[in-house]
Amino acid sequence: MRVAVIGATGNVGTAVLDVLGRTSDITSVLGISRRMPDTEAEPYSGCEWRSIDIAAASSQDTAHRDLTEALTGADAVIHLAWLIQPNSDRGLLRRVNVDGTARVAAAVAAAGVPHLVVASSVGAYSPDDSMDKRDEAWPTEGIRSSHYSVDKAAQERVLDDFCADHPEITVTRLRPALIFGAPAASEIQRYFLGTWMPVQLLRAGRLPFLPLPAGLRGVQAVHSTDVARAYVASVLRRRSGAFNICADDVLHPKDLAELLDHGRHIPVPNGAVRAALSMGHSSSLVAADEGWLDMGLNVPLMDNGRARRELGWDPEYSAMDSARELLKGMADGEGAASVPLRPRDPEQPQLRTTDDTSTGHEASDAGGEHSEVDMDLLGLYLCDHLTGATAGAERIERMAADFVDTPVFAALSELAAEIRGEHLYVRHLIGELGLRRRPVAEALSWVGERVGRLKSNGSLLKRSPMILVLEAELMRSAVIGKLGMWQTLEGNAEALGLDAEQFRGLAQKAEHQREVLDTVHSYARSRAFRRDRAVYDQASGVSPVRGD
Hints:
Layout: E1 2-6, H1 11-21, E2 28-33, E3 48-51, H2 60-71, E4 76-79, H3 90-111, E5 115-119, E6 133-134, H4 147-165, E7 170-176, E8 178-180, H5 185-193, E9 210-213, E10 221-223, H6 224-237, E11 241-245, H7 253-258, E12 265-268, H8 270-282, H9 290-298, E13 301-302, H10 305-311, H11 319-332, H12 360-369, H13 375-402, H14 409-432, H15 439-452, H16 467-496, H17 500-528
Parallel strand pairs: 1-2, 1-4, 2-3, 4-5, 5-7, 6-13, 7-11, 8-10, 9-12
């Protein structure tokens, strides 16, 4: 069988690729995502790949053409793509999540694919305040105050219409509970808590008690590997209809408190928790809005019996074990080799010395043995670059987030992950050479970049068309400066006892980054100052700007 997975680089998509790769009946897999993963890393290396934007910044005609071409010849399509953030852009979320599902379904029909498997959710269900477990017949009208739930319910209506129009196509809907697993830990922190949240403290000990909403009846969860097994079972058995996917146990308030080793919790009025979450979200302290709380308090508890009977599926992980793994993963900053699942702190690179060793002591000693290198001056030079790199990494990450609804998003997002890694590399290099950092300057650079965001560029209430032009120019200048640093280090590597090849490779990477930014700038400047064109026109049909 040939299976196409749309949204193949996220939490579930990565787990699905892993299970598909270990399933003998699956002979080829096509991964489709807006942003490309590291295709040399598992489980991404065993797939073919296509970069397709299903709805964020593509016209209906462009998406239909690209999807139909990619899906032709597939025996089944697993549609997982779903945009969680930004909460504030309801139009974008609705377009990607609901309209995007309609576009995928239409392309499945046009390509002649006989089976479509779609990621629905427990969030599609209507409210329930009982402790009874509900089967798939429970209504799917959603929770009105949760944008996620509203869109999941709307997605169900899209699938209802598609099934009526195309009875010849088998349509399977999986409705999972909360999906936990270590590879998604850093992603979940970014999407729901925020990068500043000190989740590392989960390692340090336990809270004296856990405050929880008084109305919380229980939480259902499923491990990402188990939900992936359910998707693959759906493909192999080709059963139509909806299936609840969850572990057998329910995490009640006492169970949630026991995850922190003590079992003590304090009920807090729902209204107080909701107000605090609303305030935290509006002040950008917490990524999730209050709608997520409303959904968690009101969705029904699910019965997974149909999946057991018809898919031959059984959960291998309990909800408690899945939650423990997630918490440990958050504390450790775990992730995977895709942009959505990137770990909190990329793995520190090894600094290669001339004898091809990689210990910091040898690198530092090598510098001390060569009196021709002024290490104090070199330290000032590298610290200046680190200060600039701090602002640059923040700027490119913000650019990627701000321009998610443009064809340049994928290129910017992949570039942001690369530049953040290089920022950490410079910091690591300074430490390995035994040089002194200047944390105050780095902090001021970080603050300065954020203050710079307050400029209006002639438009206070909406994005100015020229913002992308200016941002691309600033980042291009920063990359050119970084190129000079790598060249300087390459020229002095022998005197420092370091392998020059590592800096030569980084210089080549900087050249490529400049080319990507040139392409982004070309897109922006051709539209920003024209009355007949729009930078943020989602229906433009402009091809995605790629960095490769």
